[in-house]
Amino acid sequence: MARDERGVTAQSEDFAAWYNEVVFKAGLVDRGPAKGTMVIRPYGYRLWELLQSEIDGRIKATGHENAYFPLLIPESYLSREAEHVEGFSPELAVVTHAGGKELEEALVVRPTSETIIGEMMAKWISSHRDLPLLLNQWANVVRWELRPRMFLRTTEFLWQEGHTAHIDEGDARRETMLALDLYHEVARDLAAMPVVAGEKTPGERFAGAVATFTIEAMMRDGRALQSGTSHYMGTNFATAFDIRFTGESGREELCHTTSWGMSTRMIGGIVMTHGDDKGLVFPPRLAPHQVVIVPITRGGSAAVEEAAQQLAQRLRAAGVRTHVDARPQLTPGFKYNDWEMRGVPIRLELGPRDLEAGTAMMVKRLGDEGKQAVAIDSLPTVLPGILDEFQEYLLARATKFRDEHTRVVDTWDEFAAAVSTGWALALHCGTPACEDDIKAVTAATPRCIPLEGDPTAGACVRCGAASAYGKRVIFGRAY
Amino acid sequence: MARDERGVTAQSEDFAAWYNEVVFKAGLVDRGPAKGTMVIRPYGYRLWELLQSEIDGRIKATGHENAYFPLLIPESYLSREAEHVEGFSPELAVVTHAGGKELEEALVVRPTSETIIGEMMAKWISSHRDLPLLLNQWANVVRWELRPRMFLRTTEFLWQEGHTAHIDEGDARRETMLALDLYHEVARDLAAMPVVAGEKTPGERFAGAVATFTIEAMMRDGRALQSGTSHYMGTNFATAFDIRFTGESGREELCHTTSWGMSTRMIGGIVMTHGDDKGLVFPPRLAPHQVVIVPITRGGSAAVEEAAQQLAQRLRAAGVRTHVDARPQLTPGFKYNDWEMRGVPIRLELGPRDLEAGTAMMVKRLGDEGKQAVAIDSLPTVLPGILDEFQEYLLARATKFRDEHTRVVDTWDEFAAAVSTGWALALHCGTPACEDDIKAVTAATPRCIPLEGDPTAGACVRCGAASAYGKRVIFGRAY
Fold it and tell me: pTM of the full predicted structure?
């Protein structure tokens, strides 16, 4: 066997090592040859497809249409929006030669598509009747990474990027929040990630945005993961790309634009929100296999294998994603460990004696209830509910963990202690210099100003100046 | 109005101009800024999504799994297979700078992924139990185009590429044919394109393949469009990338690999197979809108608009993709022309008098049956069947066109005449020099040796030498 049969490093011992081992050993990912690139293996890609299909359905249901824009963008496009080029320049991959010749103008591999989509919007929009223009693209993007981490920071990743143009600020801001809500729901209801929605401070804004909103998740090491962002661009890109419309009054005006994205980074978020020392724990609604059946066939029992396949078919007909592990060369014990490590929510063990009794042994991934004998005939009826409960349990557990690792702090010592294990809710003066100072000392950054935070004011936890934003800010170390 | 209200150039007048006008005017595509790139607009992308979902379902149903491999490939990878690098070198886009620095080794933007997937297969396969390895990827690829044509030849296009590894030649060849059959069915049953399946002659093989199979479609100007290809690679890539397995006997052996792809080129194929002088004609099974309802609301009749929306909902519930054109600023006549140009199979006109009579006026895209009054209440029941008939009619019409433009020829004069308007079925000696000669004189190339051709032999239609292949070859000018 090529597989390493040992387990993974304990989370408490070395969380980073645990993460790296588990994403590789579980067959989610492999390293690509070019710096920081990744191969998403079938087991990881299936999870992405399930997530993608849910996001895509929600994007379409809210009136957006998919389109596809070119990968290669003239270098000069990026320079048209000054903050945008400054933000992305260090991360660009640049095509200088093509078709056997040096190009007159170099092309960048898209790090994001505001510029090229802005150029097309300018062409397609002429009247207020063309607005809102609600576009979305599923695509790969490239941002050169010096310190890559699989799924979290990779040179190439997959995402959707919504790009919309609107008649005024009000409509564009509504869209920005609609996308943020969509991400919030996807994270909570599908990934069982209890994210906090909020606005980024000016220092953490997207390059070129007037306002950036985010959903922030807490990983099991207490760090934050920015899991989706939605930007109100004001008229910045409309000015740079000349996106104008003739209003009802006949006057020409600039559009207000937005953009918003969610990426394969979510896979890393799911791993680090729910995983434990045995490996992955996948939320049922996104698990590639919700149930794995392990037939116990000492010496090869055709009856047991057949019963396993029949049960699988009945479960699939009941809408349960079911896999039968029929690998002849492996022991049941090996398979139990393997599927635990790979995060399958429910395991069903089926041996000759179970078959005689008309039952299967059910084991939930968290293992806290031991093995239960369940009547085979009842499984198609009861499993969907058991999976729903498992999904709810994961969300509740992650919410509890997040709340236990989030502290309201008013002194610097409390702040430093809080961000060493989780998040601090603190008053802050809002100046970039003070943010930088905090980061230098604690590695913590402002994650967001929570939308649902209570109004309050006082002295900055670091410098003592008057607080900004009218509410507390979440600080934490982040991925 | 920004839209140009004039029609399109007649096909008979200038087919290339017709094509170019129609793909832009119908809103399928726009030009990207970098040479030969395209923007796939929502109306074109929706068709691609429908095709994609059908292909993806069939790929999964035959046991393949999706994965994702990096866009950027070290330049040296391509050189490992000598024919492969020779075939693709002239078309490569090369990243020489990234992250603000010159790279030690340049990266090519994938023109296809045999090399990088070969490298990973070598890592993942160790035993015969790992075979067959059946992978598929949905991705963008870049091949620098000097003479781009939207959808047909563009610098960047979207496709799926299947890559599989097998225990022996027999199994790999079965896979090659399985993929070819899948493409054949997709083209025939969804795109209503009566393609011919066959093998490419050695001069037309994929760079690095032992055998290349293709489906060839005939466009309405008589030219051929290669619409999907499936390659048996022998052990060429397995040798180059060291893809080996230990057999049951314990001996180490090379895998036999395949690859196969279908792309956004199919959109161009659909346009040129079914379109006419009024514009596009979409086969119902892939049409973004199968039915468009045009409410006739002189002075704005709320009742008519409401009835149109209600009818649309009932049709959607019956599985019919239905669009209501409620644009207030346009006349019904403009909308009729617009949707005819955009290829919608069925138009329903609904005015106040129709509503009173409980009917809608139905007009089929080909317009050959005029307008028919149909009871509104019957539409959800009868329309699916009408769309099926329309689909079948398009396939029958295209088959008739293809057969009328394909001639069995035995003399050079007949050959030259046949390839000026369509395809020639001719005996050929099989030498590349003679193929080149034919191409130089007539612009025709061997499209394929049809799988279903009758056995025959004789003198080469061009040089008189003994014929090869044991059957006639299809020659034609091609896109």
Answer: 0.96
